[in-house]
Design goal:
The protein is of the alpha+beta class. The protein contains five helices and five strands. It starts with 21 loop residues before the first strand and ends in a 5-residue tail after the last strand.
Length: 145
């Protein structure tokens, strides 16, 4: 069993610099992404009130940010937001004319997001085939894949 950089090397060499230390883009992205969770506790000595706070975030290296997978659109929250904005505009402009068409932006966005998510599925499949050179940073699809 080998350890170190050669343990993660693929059988494909980089087409730019010839380096054999390459990784799947998905693995390099996962290695550079960390979930961070912090918590804090405190209290008030006078009234003996205690509190706790928990926060979570994601930390990514520059390489992981560059190699991020294609992003899917969330359909429901954005469609609801479009509907609320349309209803507010209808209330401001003229409710009799705008309310019957207030749902239209939400439906248009839902159709757009659904089509975009279908395209993202294909882009994700292509993203899974890519490799990154750990020396020069070139992203490539190996021949024959």
């Amino acid at each position: 069993m080998t350890f170190g950089p050669s343990a993660h090397a693929s059988q494909f060499g980089c087409p730019v610099c010839g380096e054999s230390h390459t990784r799947r883009v998905s693995l390099a992205y996962a290695a550079g992404t960390t979930q961070v969770r912090t918590s804090a506790r405190g209290g008030d000595m006078l009234f003996r009130n205690g509190y706790a706070a928990v926060a979570g975030s994601t930390a990514r290296t520059m390489l992981a940010k560059r190699l991020a997978p294609p992003r899917r659109h969330r359909i429901f929250p954005e469609s609801v937001a479009a509907l609320v904005v349309s209803l507010l505009l209808a209330a401001i402009i003229d409710a009799r004319l705008c309310v019957p068409f207030a749902w239209l932006p939400a439906v248009v966005y839902a159709v757009y997001a659904t089509r975009r998510n279908r395209a993202v599925a294909g882009e994700t499949a292509e993203w899974e085939k890519r490799f990154v050179c750990m020396r020069c940073g070139d992203v490539f699809v190996p021949p024959g894949t």
